[in-house]
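During the no-cost extension, the postdoctoral fellow (Dr. R.K.) reprocessed legacy sequence entries with the updated structure-token encoder. One reprocessed record is reproduced below for audit purposes.
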Amino acid sequence: MASSTFSVFGPDTRIKGDVTATADLHIDGHVEGDVACTSLVQGESSEIVGAVKAETARLSGTVRGTITVRELVVLKTARIHGDVHYDALTIEQGAQVDGRFAPRAASDSEPRLTLAAGTEA
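Re-encoded structure tokens follow.
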């Protein structure tokens, strides 16, 4: 029985260990461990130290680790330290990434890179 649920980790939450969820996650706190979920929304003040795996992710905080997602939106407040593997990617002007971007190898279609200013790379 599938239902549309989500979990929120508030700004006062600190988690040490891996997080795996069938629900969508909204993380405003600090996670030290890998995060795996269907959909991830990360708040501006949050930090994830570990790998991120999700179908979709909307990142606006700090991530220190490898990111593997189908659809990724990197907002202007995001700070990413690690490699990013994606199928579709949108980056707002002002986002900072210290790592490499690479399309996921299993995709037959051309990956899309869309810059928030409207130009395509």
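The first strand starts at residue 6 and ends at 9. The radius of gyration is 14 Å. The remaining legacy entries will be reprocessed before the final report is submitted.
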